[in-house]
Every structure is written in structure tokens, then in C-alpha cells.
Amino acid sequence: MSPHKKRILTSIVVLPIVSWIILFGSNFFLQLLIFLVSSLALFEFLSLFWKNNHLDLKILAVLLSFLVVFHDFIHISPEFLLISFFWILNLLFLFIYGKKNSPIAWLHIQLIFLGIIYIPYVLQFFQNFPRKDIVFILGITIVSDTCAYYAGKFFGEKKLWPKVSPKKTWMGSFGSLFSCVLFSLIYGEIFYSISWYKLLFLGTILNLGAQFGDLFESAIKRHLNIKDSGFILPGHGGILDRIDSLLLVCPIYLIFTRYFMG
């Protein structure tokens, strides 16, 4: 089976499950979905740097991400958790470093901390969004990735940024931008009471966020000489490969709704 057919088949299997949880699932099921995606993506992120070692640190990172996602159950803000994690991890380094032949460097500790901010801390924001907003954010991300892929595949020739991502093209980028703006205008007209120029601006900045989020992860993989973050999604790569755009789209949308929605 070709990679393209695997890509389509995986989407047909995964999208209905995710869609049902988002549209009809309880808040608890939504949290479980966020934790599952966060933990798998975080594990993949750390595995980019530690392919076959430091399993204990990867498990520690997943456990900490559980607290971030389910912070409301322990009545602690995620920001306070991040501060706590920063010092817990630093003190862990301190005590381990005090031993001879320490297997853990300070940069290992900081990679865990940054990974938690990069993935589970960002994704836990979805718990605060209305379901129609979640659909909008995911729709923007899916449209951005899909239209960039097909516009680049059929019309792209000139490479966008070959050092970072050798397959992305200018036509793919423009196709992605145009489709996201169109999606934003149509979806916003149906579900929101927002002026068209704000929807135009929102679609533009979210698409730019999606493209730069994707390019950022591509740069990490190119730097480490790795093609995909994982293999859990046939035809797509890893979980992180599918949500890299989302990890920048989500905070941009949060800022927009907080300061520009009125």
C-alpha cells in the first residue's frame, strides 16, 4: 500500500473517534484524549534526542504531563505546576550530579521541562475552550496541513525553505493560507458573531502559526537527521508530526480570543 493510501486510511479510522469525543464526549473523555495525545507526542519528542536510552526520564515526563492535563482534579493551576516542575527537576539534577559518574546532565532535565511546556501545557488549554472553538482550531490545522500537502504535490515546484523542510513549496504555503482564510470566513460566519475582517485576520495568523509550528518541528528533525517523530500513524508518521502545527495554533488562538475577540 502506498504512503498516500495509508495516510487516507489512517485518517478515516482516527478522525471519527476524535470527532465523537470532541462533539459528544464528556469533559473527562476529552481530558483523557488530551493526555493520550500529549503523552505519546512528548515521548516521541524526547525520543528524538534519546532514541534508545533514558526511558526513566521519558516515563517521568509522561507522569508530569498527567498532572498538567488533570490539574483541575488536584486544584492546582498549571502555571504553578510548571514552576514546581522546574525546581523539582533541577533539584533532581542536583542530587544525581552529586553522585559519581552521573548519567544525567542538566540539559537532559531542561529538555523534559521544555517538552512539557511545548506539548501537554499547550494542549491542556483545550479544556477551557467551547467545543465549537475546538472544532475550529482543529479544522484550521487540518485544512492547513491537507491543502499545503496537495497544493504542493500538484502545483509546487519552488521550494519554500529546503534547509528546514525539503518537500514544502511556495505553492503549498499559499494554498494552505488561502484555504485557511476561506475556512475561517465560512466557519466564523456560521458559528460566530465576528466581523469579516477579524475572521480574515484570524485565519491568516492561525495559518502562519500552523506553518511555522510545522517548520519548527521539521527543523528539529533535520537537525537530528530524523525523518519522522514516530510510526504510530501509518502514512503520517508520529503523533508529534500530526500536531506540530496545532502546538502554535492553539496559543495564538488563545491570545486572539482574549484580546481581540470583542
Brief rundown of the structure:
This protein has 262 residues and is mainly alpha-helical. The chain has helices spanning 3-24, 27-49, 55-69, 78-97, 106-123, 131-155, 170-191, 196-224, 239-243, 246-259; strands at residues 159-161, 165-169. α2 (27-49) runs antiparallel to α3 (55-69), α3 runs parallel beside α5 (106-123) and α7 (170-191) packs across α8 (196-224).
Query: Biggest sheet, open or closed, and with what strands and sense?
Result: 2 strands, antiparallel
What is the number of strand segments?
2
Q: How many domains would you count in the coordinates?
A: 2
Helical stretch tally: 10
State the strand order across the main sheet: 1-2
Kindly state the percentage of residues in helix: over 70%
Q: Low-confidence stretches at least 5 residues in length (pLDDT < 50)? A: none
What general outline do the C-alpha atoms trace? globular
Structural class: mainly alpha
Mean of residue pLDDT values: 88
Distance between the termini: 49 Å
- Sheet-strand content, in percent, reads under 5%
Order of helices and strands: HHHHHHEEHHHH
* Structural Rg: 19 Å
